[in-house]
Amino acid sequence: MFATSHPRIRSEEWNWLLVCSIVIIFLISLPYLYGSMLSTSTHQFGGFVIGVEDGNSYLAKMREGQVGYWLFYLAYTPEAHQGALFFLFYILLGKLANLFNLEPLLLLQWSRLLTVGFGLVSFYIFVACFTANIFIRRLALLLFGVTAGFGWLWLLLGFSIELGQMPVDLWVPDTSFFLSAFTFPHLSLAQGLILWVVITTFHFFETNSLRSWLAAAGAGFLVSLVHPYTLAILGAVFGAHLLWQSYHQKKILWQAGGRLALVILPSLPYLSYVFIVFETNFAFNNWREQNLTWSPHPIHYILGFGLILPLAGLGLWQHRLFFTSQNFSFLTFWIFLVPLFLYAPTPLQRRFVDGYQAALAVPAAAGLAWLVWKLKLKRLQFFTLTGVFFLMVLTNLFLLVGAIFTIQRQEPPVFYPISQQAAFHWLAEKAPGQVVMAAYETGNILPAYAPMRVFAGHGSETVRSAEKRALLAEFFAPENDHLRRRLIKDYAIIYLFYGPRERELGAFSPTEADYLRQVYDNGTVQIFEVVELN
After folding, report:
1. Which of 170, 187, 55, 51 is nearest to 119 (CA)?
2. Residue 285: how many CB atoms within 10 A of its CB?
């Protein structure tokens, strides 16, 4: 077999990769830098533009690590429950924040930039495993790092922008490395680790060395900690690849199959643990039932990947001109098997697309190169290459520009008042770990700044989220004193957060409730402590 695990990468390639990575990191940092510049003494940039609700939840997970937890607890639900060994990446970031006295949000953003660099380097090594052609390698990196589909055209035509009702390059980070890089660090980390599982597993197939097995099994275990479903997809693709190789070599590759099993086996105890927790822990079971990631209509995938699909088709057709590795069939099976998994009878459907862009980008680079080289005139080659890339980067340019305009408005939930943050800090000092009643929007951001639990604040991490959101509206209605007492008692609520969002929910006046005592007031936000209920 071709030595995929030892691709030769020249020093000038590393220099080019470094420059490209810096440019991409700079581009995805612009909106965040702009948001920081617009922060004032009265309003603060929250640190997230896309997926703000999830972004705050990741900060909340860091807070748990910062105050000493190793197990993850659902901060967005008031029910007491057993924690689990999930989100270890964010728990560890929180511990680093505590160790070096760093602000969690700043550390999260730094880690995002580092994982983006890790993802890009991982992909370049990955593509170098399949071709020695430097032009193809560079072209593939650009396709992977900065391009997307026809989401931009969808927006220009004024079609629906509801989640699930538009091309995936606009809302599913797993389909686009650029969108992953633009949002949360664990997404880029997962994509990089997926590629390392492939690189190191092929190395183990070839060398059968202890070090290569440790690298492959370690990469598999790490990616399982981030996305537990990943090894199932990679295992299926590797299995199909080995069967194909067995067919061509007229013998069953028992040794390679055994080595694949050795790569996967060390992760099985943790994957079994994940399954048991979601089956037996009521809080995590409810989270799973609410966290549904069904695939959208196939047209949204086709439009979301855009030109990379036909280019990958061309590359597969002409692959013998560019790829010398016998392991190229692995990419072919990855490309053709994932669409089947995307509509498998499981609510995890959409998750199985993770890393798929990397599989497409390699043959797509060859397809684009073949298309350009078929044109004899150099000027025509240049304009064709430039035009194709222009069409493929427009969605990401739209995302950047849209993020900047969103930040410029300085509106919630992207920005929030400093007075609110001051109240969060007071709670963090006075009552860590207690349950707080607040509006849903307040409840989403509060655990990001204080290690508290809230009545409701996240669509999937709040047990019976829809029911609790309805109860919130009733809680703040003036005539529902009996309901308020019942909820306070049933959910062991200790504090009531009362700010602008809470006032919007209803005319209830906490100062008139004999079971509440005001303990904090900064002019905008009041906090009330629950005293003995009658």
Report:
1. 187
2. 14
